[in-house]
Amino acid sequence: MAQPLMPHATASWMVDNTSLSFEQIAEFCGLHILEVQAIADDTAATKLTGRDPVRAHEVTQDEIDKGQADPSYRLQMTRGPDQVRRTKGPRYTPVSKRQDKPDGIAWIIRNHPEITDGAIGILIGTTRTTIAAIRDRSHWNISNITPKDPVTLGLTTQRELDAAVAKAAKAAGLEAQPNDPRLEGDREALIGQLRAEREQHARDLEAGLVPATPDPNALFDPFRR
After folding, report:
1. Residue 199 shares a structural domain with residue 160
2. Are residues 104 and 157 in the same domain?
3. Cα separation of 35 and 40, whole Å?
4. Which structural domain, as residue segments, surrounds residue 23?
5. Model confidence over 133-164: pLDDT tens digits?
6. Displacement of CA 145 from its chain's centroid (Å)
7. Distances (CA, A) of 180 to 14, 53, 183, 184
8. I want to staple 20 with a disulfide (CB 3.0 to 4.6 A). Which of 12, 24, 84, 193 is the partner?
9. Does any domain span residue 88?
10. Which of 2-11, 64-73, 129-138, 195-204 comes out lowest in average pLDDT?
């Protein structure tokens, strides 16, 4: 169920400005009833400034009125808070993982040289300057950089890495070319011919038509290792 953007502040406002039960407020705000009780008793760890959910367009006054008239009524939100999504800029990487970026970059450079610096920057969330420094080994910490799989490090997902590799391979013309059926037919024909010649030689040998110990250079058996 959707909850107010600031549940504790909203609960504080409802305690002060409505006659809703603690249970109704707790359920609407996604809190435990004891948290609402603490706010009402002014024993919460932090003094809260109330936030009006009606002005925030999270609930209507009619909904509050229905709840005040019927303690069993459960308030319905008008809409949930808007979600903020990053649509531009480099990938966000948690602080705890940022020190692993050079290792992930070095791994991609070593194992997938076809991926461009721009694609690596998008994949790992780094700059071209950092990538170039690792590529030409002028990075300030190059002696401590150890190539490690960025998926294992949690810097990207396997699906994103595979997509980047496939895109780079296609751009570089490294995609596997489909087998030509005509060439495949010629290969099978050659193998069949060689097998037939070997079988014929075995029959001639049994019939005494060829020496039992032929010159090793006179016959080449492509199937002999």
Report:
1. no
2. yes
3. 9
4. 7-69
5. 999 999 999 999 999 998 888 888 888 899 99
6. 23
7. 74, 68, 5, 6
8. 24
9. no
10. 195-204
